Amino acid sequence: MAGDWLTIVLRLALYLDLAAAFGVAMFGLYALGNDERSSTISRRYRVLIGASAAIGIALSMWGMTVMAKAMSGAQSYAELSTHVFDMLITGTHMGIAWCIRILALLVCVLVAMLKLNATLRFAVMALSTGVALATLAWAGHGAMDDGVRGYIHLASDITHLWAAGAWVGALVAFLCWHPTSRMSRKTR
């Protein structure tokens, strides 16, 4: 039973983390003007998105380890062999989605560290975190149907993840928004 709770907590943390990363990146694209994308708030968002992507990698790896233990029936993590991970990662749709997620998050971390045009940086971070967020659909209800119905269900879940991510990320972006010193002097 404790393993079930760990799986639930890890999935929730991963959903919130990736939703925040995607939403903040989208917020940087649609809410910040060109001059604001070079400002302090833009740098805060870049660091937040990069850190969230790195945390997403760690949570994904931890989640895959917990899933491997649960699916193999192992009593402890020490019993897990590379064969179990190989089978899970290369032999299931969830595993392939996991690989795509890790790759997308690595791209995001790299882009967050590179010196690029701010608009291009936000666009690539939004794209990579959007891909990472979409991969969560393969570990949920979106993967339960086959054929055309399965594709429709998967597309619906991905769209829902993106909408929720944009909303969660906008909330996070607003929480990170601090008035500039010039604005705070005017209010005194």
TrEMBL record:
Its main location: other. The chain crosses the membrane at residues 12-33, 45-68, 88-113, 120-140, 160-178. GO terms for cellular component: cell envelope; plasma membrane. The keyword Acetylation does not apply. GO terms for biological process: copper ion transport. The keyword Transmembrane applies. Keywords: Membrane, Transmembrane, Transmembrane helix. It is found in: Cell envelope. InterPro entries: CopC/D. This is Putative copper resistance protein D. It comes from Pollutimonas bauzanensis.
